[in-house]
Amino acid sequence: MPSAPPITILHVFSTFAVGGPQVRFAKIAAHLGDEFHHAILAMDGDYACRSRLDPRVHVSYPEITFRKGHTAANALRFRRCLRELRPDVMVTNNWGSIEWSVANAVPLTRHIHIEDGFGPEERDAQIQRRVWMRRVFLRHSTVVVPSLTLRRIATETWKLPAARVKHIPNGIDCAQFDGGSRMVEPPGNGVVIGAVAALRPEKNISRLLHAFSRVATRRAARLVIVGDGPDLAELRRLAGELGLMAQVEFVGHAERPEEYYGGFDIFALSSDTEQMPLAIIEAMAAGLPIAATDVGDTRAMVADVNRALVTGCDADALANSLQQLVADREKRDRLGAANRKKARRLYDQEEMFGAYSWLFRTSEAERATDAWTGRQGTPRHA
Fold first, then answer.
1. Which is the most buried residue in 157, 244, 280, 305, by most CB within 10 A?
2. Which CA distances in Å does 192 have to 237, 247, 248, 327?
């Protein structure tokens, strides 16, 4: 008997540069195997994350031209594209792909929208035009969110039907962080504070530098920042201005950032906006205590004993959390052990793989009666 043709999924990203949603997709695609064909479209033309795709994944990159900002014309063009490609499922990602949701307003294909969070322009408040468009054009789609914060926004602010909003927490290969190699050596008997982040404004690494400057005057410590981005030059300048160049290391881009966690004693997150940051899960899986700003689900994600160190979005509060950890090794060990235990219990990738596999394979009618839908009503880490 001939095998069934692969399920074709059109994935629309605002960018396919290396980032949390793109890396998550690469892992899910590898897990799904050859039952699926993935057509990937990056609205900005950046396909850097294709290097993270397993070579066994069936993938293509359709070409389409459009003019940014011409929503109505683009929607018509994208609708023609949907007619030509005829995907079994269209998966859009975040606000940058909203025009494809408009194109499918009169459905041509099953639509799943994944919302991971917001850029700096929506850090403090939702933009009303965007709220309205999400409310109108996602109302009949399946909307996937990784965080409880986003689930609340989707149902209360965007007023989407609760039954169409699916909460699927991000997951990682926790075993990958067991006794990882030590890429960072400590300064004598000092403590290494680590951060893994894209160096963009919303990650606010400048806040971390200011917080670290308060800690570094009291203790032997070093700050290691893994990641690259448009803010790198300005952050180097700020580190020099604060007199920290001897104590701060900018690693830059790392193909395997997970290899650095084994060299950290503390993990720091200084973002203005997040939802369910993968870096927090990775730090937890590596058995690290965490000092972080209280953004998205960060406070709910960490172990109970670590929550007091998830504080306000200012340098003084972050410095206080870092100082407590730098000064107390027993506390670092205790919080790190609790974080590792919770990561393995709740955030291993196998559960995430199962949820996305079910979602991509299952029709709307089948999902309406599937038991998995009911289980998602009560998130495991709530």
1. 280
2. 21, 10, 10, 12
Residues in the chain: 382
CA Rg value for the chain: 21
Q: Where are the alpha helices (DSSP H) in 187-247?
A: 205-216, 232-241
Q: Where would I find the H helices in 87-143?
A: 98-103, 128-137
Q: Are 297 and 275 in contact (CB under 8 A)?
A: yes
pLDDT tens for the chain, residues 1 to 382: 456 789 999 999 999 998 889 999 999 999 999 899 999 999 999 999 999 999 999 999 999 888 887 888 999 999 999 999 999 999 999 999 999 999 999 999 999 999 998 877 776 788 999 999 999 999 999 999 998 989 999 999 999 999 999 999 999 999 888 765 556 655 555 799 999 999 999 999 999 999 999 998 877 899 999 999 999 999 999 999 999 999 999 999 888 888 899 999 999 999 998 888 889 999 999 999 999 999 989 999 999 999 999 999 999 999 999 999 999 999 999 999 999 999 999 999 998 999 999 999 886 545 554 544 444 433 343 3
Q: Which of 258, 253, 318, 324 is nearest to 285 (CA)?
A: 258
- DSSP class of 348: B
Cβ–Cβ under 8 Å, residues 196 and 253: no
Q: Cα separation of 59 and 265, whole Å?
A: 39
Q: Rounded to the nearest 5°, which phi and psi values hold at 48?
A: -60, -30
Say if residues 112 and 359 touch (Cβ distance below 8 Å). Answer: yes
CA 381 to chain centre: 17
- Report DSSP state, residue 124: S
Domains in the chain, please, with CATH? 7-171+348-376 (3.40.50.2000), 174-346 (3.40.50.2000)
What lies within 8 Å, CB to CB, of 225 at 6+ separation is 194, 195, 197, 199, 205, 208, 235, 248, 249, 250, 251
Strand, coil or helix: what is 128? helix
18 phi, psi to nearest 5 deg: -70, 120
Give the C-alpha separation, 98 to 71, whole Å. Answer: 9
Instruction: Identify the three-state secondary structure at position 336.
Output: helix
Which single residue is written with the structure tokens 């997709």?
A: 25
Closest by alpha carbon to 291, among 325, 336, 254, 246? 325
